[in-house]
Design goal:
Layout (H helix, E strand, L loop, with lengths): L4 E3 L2 E3 L2 E5 L5 H12 L9 E3 L2 E5 L13 H12 L4 E5 L13
C-alpha cells in the first residue's frame, strides 16, 4: 500500500467510495452496534446518518478475525487501489463488478 502523504495540515489518506449496498447486512448491523455501544461492541467504524467509514489494515493478516469474507474481499480491493479506508455511503458509487446486498 502506498504511504500516507504528510502535508502541513496533517496526513492525507485515500478512500474507496462505495454504496452502502455493497456492505452485507450483518456488517451494517455490526457498524450500528459499534456506534450505539460507544465503541465497545461491533465493527470499528466512523459513522453518520448516511453510512460508515471503515479502516483498511495495511496487511491482510491484520484484518480482524470477525470480518466477514465479503468485507475482507472489499478490503483487498481497497488495498489494491492504495486506499486506507472504505467509505460506505447511501449515495456512494455502485460497482457492477461487486456483490450488492441492498
Amino acid at each position: 500500500m502506498s504511504e500516507v502523504l504528510p502535508t502541513s495540515a496533517g496526513f492525507v489518506c485515500r478512500h474507496l467510495d462505495l454504496s452502502t449496498g455493497h456492505l452485507p447486512l450483518a456488517e451494517r448491523d455490526a457498524c450500528e452496534l459499534y456506534l450505539s455501544s460507544g465503541g465497545t461492541a461491533g465493527r470499528s467504524c466512523l459513522g453518520g446518518p448516511y453510512g460508515w467509514m471503515i479502516h483498511v489494515p495495511t496487511e491482510a493478516e491484520d484484518v480482524p478475525q470477525d470480518v466477514s469474507p465479503e468485507l475482507a474481499a472489499l478490503m483487498v480491493r481497497a488495498r489494491e487501489q492504495n486506499c486506507h479506508y472504505i467509505h460506505f455511503d447511501r449515495d456512494g458509487s455502485i460497482d457492477e463488478t461487486l456483490p450488492f446486498y441492498d
